[in-house]
Amino acid sequence: MKKTSTQSSTKKTFNNMKCFLGIVPLIALIIPGSVLSQTSPATVNLGTSGNFVILAKTGISNTGATSIVGDIGVSPNNATSITGFGLVADPSNEFSTSSLVTGKVYAANYTAPTPAKMTAAVSDMQTAYTNAAGRAPDFTELYTGDLTGKTLTTGVYKWSTGVLVSAGGFTISGSPTDVFIFEIAQNLTLANGATITLSGGAKSSNIFWQVAGQAILGTTSSFRGIILCQTMINIQTGAAFDGRALAQSAVTLDGNSFNVNSTLGLADLSLENGITMYPNPAQNNVTIKNSNNVKLDQLAIYDVYGRLINTIDLRDMQQEKIINMSDLTPGIYMLHLQSNGAKTTKRLIKN
Known about the structure:
Elements: H1 5-30, E1 52-56, E2 59-63, E3 67-69, E4 71-74, E5 82-83, E6 88-89, E7 96-98, E8 101-107, H2 114-133, E9 139-140, E10 151-152, E11 155-159, E12 163-165, E13 170-173, E14 180-184, E15 188-190, E16 196-199, E17 207-211, E18 215-217, E19 222-229, E20 233-235, E21 240-247, E22 250-254, E23 257-259, H3 266-274, E24 275-278, E25 285-290, E26 298-303, E27 308-313, E28 320-324, E29 331-339, E30 342-350
Parallel strand pairs: 1-4, 1-21, 2-5, 2-22, 3-8, 3-23, 4-8, 9-11, 10-13, 11-14, 12-15, 13-16, 14-17, 15-18, 17-19, 18-20, 19-21, 20-22, 21-23
Antiparallel strand pairs: 6-7, 7-8, 24-25, 25-28, 26-27, 26-29, 29-30
């Protein structure tokens, strides 16, 4: 039987479609360090635990000149398990304050209604952990857990092992509404100096790291996202954290810069986003650039042990100011900048 022109055309179109569909997964395999986009999963509801930048059950300990923007709290342990903050009790005894925290410090043994508030927050934290851990994955055992040099798009990722980000760092790419969920059965480890970079408008508040083991952020690393951790979150010397640390055990800090954008006021955001420093690492001089023309008051330089090294008056500063760092010994320093009540902290490495 002779084929009609319509039948030939239909068969040709079908074959072309088969060819194209065969090429799509091939493209996914040959593009190095990337994952094709998926439909964004629903966000993880943090409940009242989302009111805290740091929340732990057994304790929060700090060494050095840590700077935290947001509330922190502990429950069911009491305030004695919050160490290294120099806590000052509020007259109401419902919370404490600290020179290291732009926010309030809560503990289970403070005056009502704080105990009930803390119990609810910890319960919500554990519910959020279970929710994140139960999501059906889009990707399983991707890159055998080594994300170094990779770019990940929106989706749910699951590993039965630990996850490593070496010094080369990796990128999370997506829109401001895209959600990313990482389910990790063992440890999450950022090597010393590793950086998580966001692109395309992706937000730290939409990135969830569900970690069954420990979360270990190495010295001078830069982390983005919300950690829901079943055990300890260990944030090492000079590491910067943009997000929330919610631990069913303890959180340890050592001279860290810690904030989440949703807790910053407009003045803080203008200061945070408008101040840059270069070079970093630096040898003799570092230039501070004020791109938003915010009127600055003072720069305070601290070492990683929390000791004040120097203060510099910035009231006469215009768009740039060169700071002489030649007298400082090599190491990591925290530069605290203040402007009419707003403040930000920048981390500087001195070679």
